[in-house]
Design a protein that fits this description.
Arc Repressor Mutant, subunit A, Rossmann fold, mainly alpha, 23 helices, single chain, 49% helix
């Protein structure tokens, strides 16, 4: 077994939340820092909420972030390329990809017995481990540590409300715990299918959390909890203990919202005679109102940020900064630097505020530093979304355009509004530019500019510099009075890239065509 084994175990019941992505990142950095193993396990026993499309998107988002797992659902090359640009297909496409994964997992499960020696601990989907959970349930039944519960949801809700009204902690009060065999048979004869509850011992549960220190829970305050539902599916706390033990997980790193679950899980570890792993509960991601980050705060899923044009490196970097710190205090870090500098001991106990502006700031840095040729490839889906036909654009010329505008981008999705000025079919006069060009002094500057361009010769840079000198001499204009009319006429905007570079990309003929329309 590896010295350290950690896992990320999401449920495919929705899109990958940035909070869960940060948990995956913390586990991944911990494994890579210590030379351990990062396991991906899919907890899909909630049949009513789990969906194949969510699982495909989940695995796709993790791959996009670069959080590669050492053990878990197998992904072939066709899957890893599925909409890798950041856009996803529909349910049918997702299901086809999932079928490929499922076949790989089934094949792997058949090899289970002979691969154990090489570190294989699958299957890695809970829905494929039901026989394992049933075997462990029977062990607890035989040890008289569990009992069948026939309470309906209505009965449980009535009990819960009564406890709240009497100002007591809501918990199961053990109604079915001491049923006789005759009472149980009577319930089953009435058609009731039991769930199974664990008999919580009246004892103190203590453990040391790597982030939060000494923790203590009283068993007397915890009601007997369900470990297997009436439909035969394992409850979270039951399945996770069995899976973590059988998969050799040494450290469980997760959000602080799981702290109360830890007490229940330690009781189950003890009941089975398993040694519990080391626990570490990091802080949650909060909105600016300090409430748990949710959709009311805006974008919250990895998929949403992908669609906005956030680069994976930027999102990974930002999530790494939330609730953790690195020794030298830097904020822009490579994956390798994050791995080297990561330490659970420096993780914050207080909630981390998600600041989308800071994420955009980081993203702009990564865009600016990305080689232009690589950036163009990542821009393709956003260009197509903006209505551009990439195959019809001269590649070398377009690289010049992107090289010029990339310093102004904060997300890839903004690209259309930044490059429209270079395409005659997209060129349009904004309200601000129109107001400038309505001034007589501005019209005069543009007229003289057009006058010079008609007979100008040389390369674009020489022509532009000579034209500016000529306009100054003929009109006396300088500063904003000189450059704003030229910008407004050339680009239709009042802000944008350096004018000399815009002119160089447009060329003399295209520039002359535009400014002539304002010369009367």
């Amino acid at each position: 077994m590896d010295k350290y084994r950690v896992r990320f175990a999401p449920s495919p019941t929705g899109e990958l939340h940035v909070g869960n992505a940060r948990t995956a990142l913390f586990n991944w950095m911990f494994a890579r820092h210590h030379g351990g193993t990062f396991v991906l396990r899919i907890e899909d026993t909630d049949e009513s909420r789990s969906a194949l499309s969510y699982q495909v998107n989940l695995l796709n988002d993790l791959s996009w972030l670069g959080l590669d797992w050492d053990e878990g659902p197998e992904i072939d090359s066709s899957y890893s390329q599925l909409n890798s640009t950041g856009y996803r297909g529909g349910e049918e496409e997702a299901t086809q990809s999932y079928d490929t994964i499922r076949r790989g997992a089934d094949d792997a499960a058949n090899k289970d017995s002979r691969m154990k020696a090489t570190g294989y601990y699958g299957p890695y989907k809970q829905s494929e481990r039901l026989n394992i959970y049933n075997e462990h349930l029977q062990k607890l039944v035989a040890a008289n540590l569990v009992y069948p519960c026939y309470c309906t949801e209505a009965e449980l809700d009535e009990e819960r409300q009564a406890l709240i009204l009497s100002k007591r902690m809501p918990r199961y009060m053990g109604k079915c715990r001491n049923f006789t065999e005759a009472q149980r048979k009577g319930k089953e004869a009435a058609g009731l299918k039991p769930s199974f509850r664990f008999k919580v011992p009246d004892e103190t549960i203590e453990f040391t959390d790597l982030i939060r220190g000494a923790m203590r829970f009283e068993g007397a305050a915890i009601g007997d909890f369900i470990i297997v539902r009436s439909n035969g599916m394992p409850a979270y706390n039951f399945a996770v203990v069995i899976d973590d033990h059988l998969m050799g997980i040494t450290h469980v790193i997760r959000g602080e919202d799981h702290l109360s679950n830890t007490a229940l899980q330690i009781m189950l570890y003890k009941a089975f005679g398993f040694a519990p792993p080391t626990f570490a509960h990091h802080s949650l991601i909060l909105g600016k109102d300090r409430a748990k980050l949710s959709k009311r705060h805006g974008s919250v899923s990895v998929g949403e940020f992908r669609k906005q044009g956030i680069l994976p490196e930027a999102l990974l970097n930002y999530l790494g900064l939330l609730g953790s710190s690195f020794t030298d205090g830097r904020e822009v870090l490579t994956r390798e630097e994050m791995i080297t500098g990561f330490a659970l001991e420096r993780a914050s106990k207080s909630g981390a505020i998600f600041d989308e502006e800071k994420l955009h700031w980081l993203n702009a840095i990564y865009i600016r530093n990305r080689p232009t040729e690589d950036l163009v490839k990542q821009l393709n889906p956003f260009l197509e979304q903006a209505g551009y036909k990439i195959g019809e654009i001269d590649y070398a010329w377009f690289n010049q355009v992107i090289d010029l505008v990339k310093n102004d981008l904060t997300t890839l999705a903004e690209i259309g509004s930044h490059i429209d000025i270079f395409f005659d079919g997209r060129y349009a006069i904004t309200v601000g530019a129109k107001q400038i060009l309505e001034k007589e002094s501005a019209v005069q500057v543009v007229k003289v500019f057009a006058e010079y361009l008609k007979t100008a010769a040389g390369n674009p840079q020489e022509i532009y510099l000579a034209a500016i000198k000529y306009i100054k001499e003929k009109t006396g204009a300088k500063g904003k009075d000189l450059f704003m009319p030229i910008r407004a006429a050339l680009t239709g905007c009042v802000h944008g890239p350096e004018l000399d570079k815009v002119f160089a990309i447009l060329g003399k003929d295209a520039a002359l065509k535009r400014v002539k329309s304002f010369t009367g």
